[in-house]
Amino acid sequence: MSEAAEAREAFAAWVEEAEEAGRVFGQVLLKATEPGRYALRHVEDAGASRLRLHEDPRRAREISKTTETGEYRPLKSSPNLRRGWELRVDGVVDLSIAMNYLYPAGVVHWHLYRESRLELTSYRENAARQSGIYKRVQRLSDEGVQDTARACCEDAVCLKKTLWDVDEDTPLEMERGEGEIPCPEPCSVFVSLARRVRLFEREKKRDLDAIGLSPSEKDDLAALVETAATGHLEFVREAEFEKPLNERRMRYRRLTLVPKLRPEA
Ligand code: SF4
């Protein structure tokens, strides 16, 4: 049996074993309604009765593509899966097709991790493979990697369990996540934020003002105050790290800028 076939059989058996309670994978609640038939919905719709019903597992692609407000989801493991749907699928192949759209590679990684066969790639190994405009992430400091991981990978912004480390001697120091979906390697969203953080690191060395703030820190503070003053504080898109009001960028600032502003705390 191929790796993928083994994984989908193990996953279906895991769902069936849970009987009426079902299983939660990311934000999806899965139940076996009868042997070989599965029902999937958003976990927060567990008790909902008026959901839009679909029977084609490929509808999961559309469901996972955009948020409730219609924004593209670059990271399928972000906790922003839209609600209001139920998928009923027949057989383990259709179950695995649906899950692959909702959480790409999630089921195979879940299976390999349970069998202690999931291969991990550290940040430094991943960075060594980057080229072009991403090559600069190779020079991100260990501290920068740690702060980027806390800003980008904790459960508040990604439901995967972060398994990789900075390198083989330097573990990540963060809440690695409670969920079922393992993350074996830094993803493209992480690398993109790491690139931005590397730019911040370079800027810090050369451009600090009299009170120790860098130009981008001042830009972020100004954008935050100006937007808050309108009464409508909204984040920009998930992977737009070049813009000040990005949630992960703000999480990074909480780790690195707030201690500068309030050193006594
Ligand atoms: S690298 Fe971080 S943000 Fe990306 S999938 Fe893994 S845990 Fe999530």
In short:
This protein is of the alpha/beta class and 265 residues long. The protein folds into 2 domains: 3-114, Gyrase A, domain 2 (2-Layer Sandwich), CATH 3.30.1360; 123-261, no CATH class. It has helices at residues 3-17, 59-65, 91-102, 106-114, 123-128, 142-153, 188-207, 215-230, 247-256, 258-261; strands at residues 23-25, 28-34, 37-42, 52-54, 85-90, 161-162, 182-183.
Polypeptide structure, described:
- The protein is globular and about 70 Å long.
- It folds into 2 domains: 3-114, Gyrase A, domain 2; 123-261, no CATH class.
- It is built from 10 helices and 7 strands.
- By secondary structure, it is an alpha/beta fold.
- The mean pLDDT is 95.
- Iron/sulfur cluster binds next to helix 6 and helix 7.
What is bound: which ligands?
Answer: iron/sulfur cluster
Give the beta-strand count.
Answer: 7
Number of domains: 2
Strand order of the largest sheet: 1-2-3-5-4
Provide the residue-averaged pLDDT: 95
Low-confidence stretches: none
Strand and helix order: HEEEEHEHHHHEEHHHH
Radius of gyration: 21 Å
Helical coverage, percent range: 40-55%
Distance between the termini: 57 Å
Percent of residues in beta strands?
Answer: 5-15%
Total helices: the number is: 10
Describe the main β-sheet briefly. 5 strands, mixed
Shape: globular
Judged by helices, strands and strand pairing, the structural class is alpha/beta
